[in-house]
Amino acid sequence: MVGTATRRPGGFVRRRLRRLPNPGLWRALVPVIALLAGLLAATTARTARGTDLRSAGRTNLADLIRKAEGTVATDDALVRQLQSQVAAATDRLAHSDAGIAAIKAQAQPLLAPAGLVAMSGPGLSVTLDDAHPDQPVDDPVEANALVVHQSDMQAAVNALWAGGAEAVMVMNQRLSATSAIRCVGNTLLLNGRVYSPPFTISAIGPASGMRIALNSSIGLQQYRKDADAYGLGYRVVEHTRIVVPAYDAPIGLSYAAVGG
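-> structure tokens emitted (260 positions)
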């Protein structure tokens, strides 16, 4: 006999005795349970095929992201090294090869408009940030209203260009005519690199003109309203000197072609 207990008002416990199930029933169930356990073990072994189904490498997304970022950083360093070697070799050949010298002279005026030359000068920066998780709000809102979106970033960049920006960088990367700003979740993907908020856009150019363009941007109107209502970050700062590096990502374009 085993006892079961039920709690009653006042904390008293009343115990009630009940009889154990028929022992013959347990003898019949034991082989069935053992068979099911064996089938489960065999299925797991067949699915794993000698690997660990709960391997940290398979389940830890953060580790995968860190590994991918490390690979990108290593590849970027190699690309910059090769670009430097190509530029040095081109300069050497230009002294002895008239054809290369002519091509280099023809390309030189195009480097700055293409963003391939570092620049510095006065300008301003715009910082966009998600709302703080503990930010109090009067009314329930959708989660989308509390984060920075791709359209917000694009609107800010377009406003800076419209205001007379001569060079623009997002975070630490120079933008070119072919740069694409993409958001994945609440992170920014730019030239194969991933950034988390807050996002800073810096531009060299007339600060007054760019500030006016930001204030009159239709694409930023709703963002500024949400910033006031829900605590999204929106900060514009004027700088006497901003350094914008040269664009160092691949400049080749990938496009679709009709199959033959």
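The domain at 118-244 is CATH 3.30.70.1880 (Alpha-Beta Plaits).
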